[in-house]
Design goal:
The chain has 1099 residues and is an all-alpha fold. Helices cover 62% and strands 0% of the residues. It is built from 50 helices and 2 strands. A hairpin with a 4-residue loop joins strand 1 (776-777) and strand 2 (782-783). Residues 1-83, 133-173, 291-321, 1060-1074 and 1080-1099 have low confidence and may be disordered.
């Protein structure tokens, strides 16, 4: 049987006919494919020799089949009785030679399906030249011809293995597709032409060195032969490849620029039609390795070593320059066989290791039977039948097997680890979940991660979150969405709040690593649901923070309205910690997003102002102060981002220079932010940039104005007037509303700076608050000085800066307001609100005393009266030293005023001193002054003075010192009640009686000694009852009940002493008496509201 020639690129008979001179009848060269080995061939075994063992079996193929052909030829030369086996490569060659193309194609397909691709068939069907048809020209002599002439070309593309039969329909309408196929074919032909030209250039480059010079180099080894262009391009390619592999990217770029005539991405550009040589590292490692002697081993399955042949055989072979394409095929064949041998070597090595492990116990054993040894070793008590035994006996030997082993073992390990130490498993779980190849196992591991700890604490949750973020960074958005989010969704309604808290925190931590569509839809919906439904404060707090993070990454402008509603919903949360998180995280992030959208000034702030105005319109009969606080606090948190927008859109922004001597920002320049996200420097980018912008900002306001500064003009012309108009509509008696707006304007003015406050804010307030008596004409509607605008301007704008000129301006404003309101007989509520708000800060006590002293020495008695009443508001917050040094002297001065109304106005302030001060000397001075009012004959007929004293005693008596109450208040009330019995004017009598009733009702809640009870309290009640019998019978019933209970109290004093101090009102015995007392109290119409307040007082 003829063997296939290993060095012939084609086994056709035509090629054999072209080379008749290369062979002889008796001997053939190895390139011939003779039917048998030639005589004298050293590889021809003797007749009695055993058939040599082939290195490769017949089913192991090579790219062109030549590697086995020698072995097949050698085998065919054995004894005729030996059964020969035909190689699949020989069959393939025969099919191609005989032009059974379709059979060969079917054979090729079956081999592919069996996983045994034959390189000869693969190369044949991948070569377009085997299927070309030249129109109008006869085929070349070396073209493969079938029985019917040249082979027809495939319809769509030039290779059979790339036919796309699905592209054509059965009707044959494929003109456009054939045009594409023709273009593809022409492109391939052009590339092949380029390759042929490159090969010609390569040969030309090889022959550039003259032959004489080569002889000189060979005769003189010390003279190095100059590098050829081809060698230079090949070395350049290898050097560039080395630089890229070892991260010398800049060097590689420079090297490529210096050799711009060469394409370093394509090896074919070098010009060699041979495979790319090994890289530089491999060449370096192999350069010093000595090659084995050719005589040591002979691989009959690869090639014949001509050095081992006899001389006459070599002489008979005509010398011929080897064909480059043949050498290329040989090299490829050898490399392929080397790879096959290496794979086989690796497989055999693994089998050897396995056998060594299995035979470990037999190495040192005696010469015993394997059955006996196995029975003997069975006493070693090893268990490989169980799950754990199987895992222990099978040691992982690769990364993938390690991941598979961890995936199997971790679900069994986790339940047996202490809860307090389970966070130690987090790295192991995450690493396995990242690298495990099975999706179901990854899902189970992430489920274990989220259920690792029953109720994770803060530190454990932080560790799990850190791991989730690391997982997200490693696997990318797609797997985060598919693997992590379902775990969060499963636990959104978990019974433990710590687990729901982990879900809420995970949504925020994973937000940067999720697809934007999921971020603004699914995750946002999850958090919205938790915010509305979760009952745990800490969970809702985490939800709000995560929502803030989501707002920092959202880019869907359609979600603005949803974000706004979420802000209002979270601000209305009953938990303070949730509301705090809204101001710290959510509102700054939401404001940053609206700034990017350009809707901060056009939508967000106007929406809040509109809600405040609507609230004020609806609250004419009762303002919802909580909602007002919600809206106003949100507006206050938007001040820093609003100022940042003003700076970033200013005319000077482009002129801001960071380098150079930039002064540091004063510590008190801005109010202390609630969080870093509300720090203007953080919003701008850096403190250096903010400092540079502030310098230009102040200069622009002071010297260049606001022309063309749209963002600031909006603040001045739209925001400020609307805010001032809102301020004028709030109730001045609501201290909460006044305080809220005062803090807002204070932060607003401090943020926008002193120049802005002086030039933009104050002028607008002063335009409205024109201090004249016309502005307090209530009948004419000019009552602006009686509204909340006065206290908010005084406490929110004029207190922003505390320098001398600012304090003088505040003092002057308060003095003018006090004078104007007094002379106009207008309500003093706006002035009182200013004093209450300022009096809460000790810094302004001296300033307020200065304003009051101005009123004390004023020429108008009306102003002096107002000053005296203002002392009552100031006494409670001022320390006793100031009271003794400044307040009491001023009140004593007023108590001797020529005007009786001024003297009467001091009584409430004196009473407040008795209620709050503990210094005995001070109390004695006040006691003496009050005694002069009661005992001086000139005041005996002063009805208004008596009314004020009784009202003051009822207010301060329960909280005053017991000695002062027993020795001064109750005896004088007794005298006033007794004197009222003889009052001739009925209107005055009923006024005094009503006031005495309220005072006694308040004092009845106090502990009163038996002596004072008998001598003053009961006699005073009896005198009052005598008045009420004639003037108000409903009051008389209550007084009779009070007297009866007091008498019982005195009679049972011993029992009362054992029970301790108790009030008369609470010691009523008998359910009937209690019911009658309370029902009568509820029937009162003249003083029912005041009595309700009285009984709420505490000691």
């Amino acid at each position: 049987m003829a063997s296939v020639n290993p060095f012939n690129l084609s086994d056709s008979e035509e090629e054999a006919e072209r080379r008749p001179n290369e062979t002889v009848d008796t001997e053939r060269t190895p390139s011939d494919g003779a039917p048998g080995p030639p005589p004298g061939n050293p590889f021809s075994p003797p007749a009695d020799a055993e058939p040599p063992t082939l290195l490769l079996s017949s089913n192991r193929t090579s790219p062109s089949g030549e590697g086995i052909s020698v072995s097949v030829a050698a085998t065919s030369a054995m004894a005729g009785s030996a059964e020969t086996r035909v190689s699949v490569d020989v069959i393939a060659a025969q099919l191609i030679r005989d032009q059974y193309i379709l059979t060969a194609l079917e054979f090729h397909t079956e081999l592919l399906e069996a996983g045994r691709e034959l390189p000869r068939l693969r190369d044949y069907f991948s070569n377009p030249g085997n299927f070309e048809r030249q129109s109008g020209t006869p085929p070349a002599k070396d073209q493969v011809l079938g029985p019917g002439g040249p082979l027809n070309r495939a319809g769509s593309i030039s290779t059979l293995d790339s036919l796309d039969f699905a592209r054509y329909s059965d009707d044959g309408n494929r003109e456009s597709d054939e045009r594409v196929a023709v273009l593809e074919f022409e492109l391939r032909k052009a590339k092949e032409t380029i390759q042929a030209l490159r090969a010609n250039l390569t040969q030309a480059a090889e022959s550039e060195v003259p032959s004489q010079e080569r002889k000189n180099f060979k005769s003189s080894p010390e003279i190095q032969e100059p590098i050829r262009p081809l060698e230079k391009r090949a070395l350049n390619f290898l050097v560039n490849e080395y630089l890229l592999k070892n991260e010398y990217k800049l060097s590689s770029i420079t090297f490529s620029d210096e050799n711009d005539d060469q394409d370093f991405e394509l090896w074919d550009d070098v010009g060699l039609n041979i495979p790319k040589p090994p890289d530089l590292l491999q060449l370096y490692r192999n350069c010093g390795t000595p090659l084995p002697s050719p005589r040591d081993t002979v691989d009959v399955s690869v090639e014949v070593n001509f050095g081992d042949l006899p001389g006459n055989c070599i002489a008979q072979v005509p010398l011929k320059k080897p064909d480059l394409s043949q050498q290329t095929e040989v090299v490829q064949e050898l490399e392929y066989q080397i790879s096959l041998l290496n794979n086989e070597k690796q497989s055999l090595a693994e089998q050897i290791k396995k056998l060594q492990r299995n035979n470990l116990y037999y190495n040192n054993a005696l010469k015993l039977s394997p059955a006996f040894l196995q029975a003997l070793l069975s006493f070693c008590r090893m268990c490989s039948d169980s799950r754990l035994g199987a895992e222990v006996s099978r040691i992982a030997d690769s990364e993938e097997s390690v991941m598979l082993m961890l995936g199997r073992c971790l679900p069994h390990i986790v339940p047996n680890v202490l809860l307090a130490k389970r966070e130690e498993l987090i790295p192991l779980i995450l690493c396995t979940a990242c690298l495990h190849p099975e999706p179901k196992e990854r899902d189970q591991l992430l489920h274990i991660l989220f259920n690792l700890i029953k109720r994770p604490d803060d530190e454990q949750r932080q560790m799990i979150l850190t791991g989730c973020v690391a997982f997200a960074r490693h696997v990318g958005p797609t797997r985060v969405e598919a693997e992590l989010l379902p775990q969060c969704w499963e636990q959104i309604n978990h019974k433990y709040p710590e687990r729901r808290l982990l879900v809420a925190e995970s949504c925020g931590a994973l937000a940067p690593y999720l697809p934007k569509e999921i971020r603004s839809s699914l995750v946002l919906s999850m958090l919205q649901q938790m915010l509305a439904e979760d009952k745990a404060d800490m969970v809702r707090e985490a939800v709000v923070k995560s929502l803030g993070i989501i707002m920092g990454y959202i880019d869907d402008s359609d979600k603005y309205s949803q974000g706004f509603e979420l802000m209002l919903l979270s601000l209305s949360d009953p938990s303070e910690r949730v509301v705090s998180a809204v101001h710290q995280v959510f509102i700054p992030a939401f404001a940053a997003w609206t700034t990017e959208l350009g809707t901060l000034q056009t939508a967000l702030i106007p929406s809040l102002l509109a809600r405040i105005e609507k609230l004020l319109m609806q609250g004419e009969h009762g303002l919802d102060e909580h909602k007002l606080h919600v809206f106003l606090s949100a507006l206050q948190s938007l001040i820093p981002p609003l100022f940042a927008v003003v700076l970033q859109n200013a005319p000077f922004t482009s002129r801001a220079i960071l380098h150079g001597d930039i002064p540091a920002i004063e510590v008190t320049r801005f109010p202390r932010p609630a969080s870093p996200l509300q720090d203007v420097a953080t919003i701008i980018g850096s403190r250096e940039m903010l400092s540079a912008l502030l310098l230009l900002y102040d200069h622009q306001l002071e010297h260049e104005g606001t022309t063309g500064w749209e963002s600031l003009l909006w603040v001045v012309n739209q925001l400020l007037p609307q805010l001032i108009e809102i301020v004028g509509r709030i109730n001045v008696t609501s201290s909460t509303c006044v305080h809220e707006f005062s803090r807002f304007f204070w932060r607003f003015c401090r943020t926008f700076g002193k120049i802005f406050t002086n030039t933009k804010v104050k002028p607008q307030f002063q335009e409205i608050l024109r201090l004249s008596e016309e502005n307090v004409d209530v009948s004419a509607g000019n009552d602006i000085l009686t509204k909340a605008t006065v206290p908010i301007y005084a406490t929110g704008v004029l207190t922003c800066y505390n320098q001398e000129e600012d304090r003088k301006l505040l003092v002057g404003f308060l003095e003018d307001v006090m004078t104007t309101l007094s002379l106009s007989h207008a309500p003093l509520d706006s002035l009182k609100a200013s004093f209450v708000e300022l009096g809460a800060n000790p810094v302004y006590h001296e300033l307020l005393l200065t304003v009051l002293w101005y009123g004390v020495v004023h020429t108008s008695a009306l102003v002096r009266c107002t000053a005296a009443r203002m002392f009552e508001l100031l006494v409670k917050g001022v320390n006793e030293t100031l009271v003794a040094q400044r307040v009491v002297p001023a009140l004593i001065t007023l108590s001797s005023d020529p005007e009786i109304s001024v003297r009467i106005s001091t009584i409430p302030a004196f009473g407040t001193i008795m209620e709050t001060v503990t210094q005995k000397e001070l109390l004695e001075r006040v006691k003496m002054q009050l005694a002069s009012f009661l005992e001086d004959p000139q005041y005996q007929d002063q009805h208004s003075l008596h009314m004020e004293i009784i009202r003051t005693f009822g207010r301060v008596g329960p909280n005053a010192e017991p000695r002062f109450r027993d020795e001064f208040v109750l005896p004088h009330l007794h005298k006033l009640a007794l004197g009222n019995n003889s009052q001739a004017v009925e209107s005055k009598r009923i006024d005094i009686a009503t006031q005495l009733f309220e005072a006694y009702s308040a004092l009845s809640c106090c502990f009163i000694s038996e002596e004072v009870m008998v001598n003053h309290f009961l006699p005073g009640l009896r005198c009052l009852r005598a008045d009420m019998e004639q003037l108000s019978p409903e009051h008389e019933v209550i007084l009779s009940s009070m007297i009866k209970e007091c008498e019982i109290k005195v009679e049972n004093r011993g029992m009362a002493d054992a029970q301790g101090s108790m009030s008369i009102a609470s010691s009523l015995v008998g359910e009937d008496a209690k019911t009658k007392f309370l029902s009568k109290m509820g029937q009162l119409t003249t003083s029912g509201a005041m009595l309700a307040n009285v009984f709420q007082r505490k000691k």
